[in-house]
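TL;DR need C-alpha cells for one chain.
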Amino acid sequence: MTKYIGAIDQGTTSTRFILFDERGAIATLARREHAQIYPHPGWVEHDAAEIWRNTQTVVAEAIEQSGIRLTDIAAVGITNQRETTVLWDRNTGQPLHNALVWQDTRTADLVAEYARAGGQDRFRARTGLPLATYFSGLKLKWLLDNVPGARAKAEAGDALFGTIDTWLLWNLTGGPAGGVHLTDVTNASRTQLLDLETLDWDPGLLAAFTIPRTLLPRVGASSASYGEAKISALRGVPIAGMLGDQQAALVGQACFEQGEAKNTYGTGCFMLLNTGTRPVPSTAGLITTVAYQLGDEPPHYALEGSIAIAGALVQWLRDNLGLIAKSADIEPLARQVDDNGDVYFVPAFSGLFAPYWQDTARGVLAGLTRYANRGHIARAALEATAYQTRDVLEAMEKDAGIEMTELRVDGGMVENELLMQFQADMLGVPVVRPLITETTALGAAYAAGLAVGYWANRSELKRNWGVDKRWQPKMEEAQRATLYGGWKKAVHRSLNWIERPS
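>> reply
TL;DR here they are.
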C-alpha cells in the first residue's frame, strides 16, 4: 500500500498542503491566499486566525481531491514564514493582535535604541544576528508594550508566543485543550532570543528585551514526533517535522554537506550555505543561523543572506501599479526590450537586508529617461533580484572562504527563464534548477518522514534530487561589471532616505 508524507507550507502570501510520495513527487496540492494588512507605511500584518482557518481548509481540500485515505498518510511536517510573530491567549486560543510579519519595520526605533547602547552587533556573538527589524524578539517586545493587557496576561502565564510554526502546531495538536507549545531550532534561531551554542533561550537576552520566559515555547529538533493531530482531516497523524521555510528548502535541495548552498526566490530571496556542525560568524553582513537538526544528531548551521523583496516586487507592480495583470506576465513584458535601458530598481520597501542592514533605506527607481518604457521597468524589477543575489554571494564567499562553482535554485521565480539566465550571467557561475522545485514543502516532508522511518536516511533523500535545467553564464565580464556598477550606484541613492533624530 502506497504511503504519503504531508507538508503544511505556510508562506507570506498563502498556505498550502502537499502530499509527497517516497520519490518526492507531488500526489496532491491545495492552496489558499490570506490577506496582507498594511495599517501604516512600513507596517505589515497577517490575521493569524485566518491563517489557521486556511490551513484546515487546504488540508481537507487536498486530501478530499486526491482520494488518499487518512491511514495512508505516515506523517506531516510544517514549514513556515519564519520571523512572523504571534501572541495569543493560552485559554481561548485567540490572537491578542494581528501577527507582525517578518517584513514589518515598526520596531525601527527599538533597533536604534538598543544599538545606541552597544552597537548593531551587540547580540551577534550569541545569536548570530544583528539588531534589525527583521527578527521576532523585538516584534514580541513591541506587542507586549503596545497591546492593551498583553504584558499583564504574559506575566500571569495566560499568553503564549510563537512564530507561525508554533501557532500551527499548537492548534493542530489541541489548542487550548493540551496543544503542544514547541518550536524547532531553526525558527528559534530567528528570534534573537536563542543562544546558538546552547540552543536554548538566553536569560540575558530575555532580560534585555523584558520578555517573560513563560511565554516561550520549548525548543526541539527539526525532525521528531511532536504529537498527533487532533483536527478531523488529520486526526491521529503524527506531526513530526518543523523547519523555517529557507532551512526547509536547504533540506529539500539535499544540501547536507558543508559548502553546499541554495537560493530560494519567493516573496523575498534567501541564500543559505551549509557550514557544518559549528556556527560560522559573519564579518560581511550575513547572518549565522541553525540550518537543521535531524533527531538526536548534532545541529548543522548555515550562513544566510536574506533579501526582503524579490517576488514581492513583481506583486507590487501587479497590485499597486497595475503594470501587469498577473505575475507571470512580467517575463514577456521584460522580453520586449533588449536590456534595462540603464534603469535600476532598488526595492528597499522595508529597508535593505543582507549585506547592507540599512533599515533607513527606501525604494528607488533610478536612471529614468524619456527612452524608458514599461518593458525597461519590468526588466529592472527582475534584474534587481539577480543583483541582490550577487551582493549576497560575494559576502558569502568572503565569510566562508570558498568560491562557489554553482548555485542550486528554487521557489516560484525560477520558472522565469529570463531571470535565471541573467542570474547566471551576473554571478558568472551556473544556476541549477532541480526536477522538484517545491523544495520548501519537500524539506518539511523529508524532516517528518525521517522522524517516522518513512525514509531511512539522508542518502535516500539525495537520490531524489536531480537536475531539470542548468543555465550557463554567457555575458562578457566587462558588461557584467558595468551593469553591477550601475546597481551599486542605485543602492547608494536609496540609503538613509529616512532620517532619524540623533
